[in-house]
Design brief:
Elements (H helix, E strand, L loop, with lengths): L1 E3 L13 E4 L7 H17 L3 E7 L2 H5 L11 H10 L4 E6 L2 H4 L3 H12 L4 E4 L13 H11 L2 E4 L4 E2 L2 E2 L2 H9 L3 H8 L4 E7 L4 H5 L4 E3 L10 E10 L8 E10 L10 E6 L10 E11 L7 H22 L1
Parallel strand pairs: 1-4, 2-3, 2-5, 3-4, 5-6
Antiparallel strand pairs: 7-8, 9-10, 9-14, 10-13, 11-12, 11-14, 12-13
Helix pairs in contact: 5-6, 7-8
């Protein structure tokens, strides 16, 4: 898959394609249905598939304090779209210049001059351009003028309700990992590179692999039974898989500043610093707690580990 980071990097060979636009946060089953629809249309016309997305997401740009928790950061989106065999991902920096484009200028500069799209696949609730003035009807009016075909996105539902990123965030907030799994088509996971921590876990007798969340807000919080995939190469080949316990929180007993992800891998003593790992969330054990002393914290962690061992023993 080709990643294109701005309009300035579009070239003549990027012209003529089948495209869709959106945040694609989570790459859930609804998104996967859109990508399948995109690939079907592209296959009929021998054209490449293109997904256009934004960093930061528009809500994060306009109101970072109130933006929804990010399910997937850009690298995770790239990994999933590569797995789904998307041809090109165009990631546009969402800034004042992009936000100020009128709907017509957005279509003309990006979709026509930049990509010369042949087919555009979007939902009838799609909004774009300055102050969200553009909508599906706007795109319909411009389709004949600019020579593209406009297609409705495929609708994907589960248990009678539309699958959406919002619904997945709510499932995770409600500790309903089973529902999140049904909506995503896979277990919810967070991936990233292991960084140095303050060695607090090791000093307590439970060494951890620490990961930067790279999110304004986390969609999960608390202590979980997890499965850790250690990537040996960029694409995930030759990965090894290990049972683990993961904490996502602020560690109120110590500093209480910023969300952290810390993973204790069971019966594992290798250094993972700078390696890329994926932490798969399987079961919520408890909420984060502000323990009155270190001994109580150590007892709680030991109980978490024992509960995780029991979980995995039942699965084998």
């Amino acid at each position: 898959m080709e990643l294109i980071r701005s309009l300035h990097n579009l070239r003549d060979h990027h012209q003529k394609c089948v495209a869709t636009i959106g945040n694609f946060d989570g790459i859930h089953l609804g998104h996967q249905a859109i990508i399948s629809q995109l690939k079907e249309i592209a296959g009929k016309h021998d054209l490449p598939t293109v997904i256009i997305t934004f960093e930061p997401q528009p809500q994060e740009y306009f109101s970072p304090g109130n933006a929804p928790a990010r399910l997937t950061r850009l690298r995770e989106k790239i990994e999933e779209m590569e797995r789904l065999s998307v041809d090109r991902l165009i990631c546009l920096r969402f800034n004042s210049e992009l936000a100020s484009l009128s709907p017509r200028d957005f279509v003309k500069r990006l979709l026509i001059e930049g990509l010369d799209i042949r087919h555009l696949v979007v939902g009838d609730d799609f909004r774009f351009g300055k102050d969200r003035q553009g909508d599906y009807a706007t795109l319909e009016k411009m389709a004949d003028e600019f020579g593209y075909q406009l297609e409705h996105t495929a609708t994907c539902s589960f248990a009678g309700e539309r699958i959406s990123s919002t619904r997945i965030r709510q499932a995770l907030a409600n500790d309903d990992l089973n529902l999140a799994r049904e909506l995503l088509g896979r277990d919810y996971a967070i991936s990233g590179r292991v960084v140095h921590g303050d060695k607090r876990g090791k000093s307590l007798g439970f060494p951890t692999a620490n990961m930067e969340l790279h999110r304004l807000h986390s969609p999960v919080a608390g202590v979980y039974v997890t499965r850790v995939h250690i990537m040996r190469r960029r694409q995930g080949a030759d990965e090894t898989i290990h049972p683990a316990v993961t904490s996502v929180g602020t560690r109120p007993m110590f500093d209480g500043e910023g969300m952290r992800l810390e993973t204790h891998i069971l019966d594992f003593d290798e250094s993972l610093y700078a390696k890329h790992i994926r932490v798969v969330f399987l079961k919520k054990l408890r909420a984060e707690d502000n323990f009155s002393n270190v001994d109580d914290l150590i007892k709680a962690i030991a109980t978490d580990i024992e509960n995780a061992r029991q979980y995995f023993s039942r699965k084998t």
